[in-house]
């Protein structure tokens, strides 16, 4: 786990498999996390727009597979 301090002075704990401190300095995770957060936020908005929370491939309305 990597702990970074946000601009709001809150602590953010990030779980990662990138354990080599010399190759992946802790300080870099704040920047990397921020880039990823923009992507995660986009996917959240996109999923809401598509109403994917209510999507299911196992409903009775699905047509049977082609023979």
Topology:
Layout: E1 2-5, E2 11-14, H1 26-50
Antiparallel strand pairs: 1-2
Describe the structure.
By secondary structure, the protein is α+β, with helices and mostly antiparallel strands. It has one domain. 37% of the residues lie in helices and 12% in strands. It has 1 helix and 2 strands, in the order ββα. A two-stranded antiparallel sheet has the order 1-2. The longest helix has 25 residues, at 26-50. The model has no long low-confidence stretch (mean pLDDT 81).
**Biggest sheet layout:** 2 strands, antiparallel
Strand content: 5-15%
The overall number of domains is 1
- Return the structural class: alpha+beta
Contiguous runs where pLDDT drops below 50 for at least 5 residues? none
- The termini sit apart by 50 Å
Count every helix, treating DSSP H or I runs of 4 or more residues as helices: 1
| Principal-axis shape | elongated
What is the count of β-strands? 2
Average pLDDT number: 81
Order of helices and strands: EEH
Computed CA radius of gyration, to the nearest angstrom: 19 Å
Percent of residues in helices comes to: 25-40%
Largest sheet strand order: 1-2
Describe this structure in a few short sentences:
By secondary structure, this protein is of the alpha+beta class.
Question: What would the keywords be for this entry?
Answer:
67 residues; alpha+beta; two-stranded antiparallel ribbon
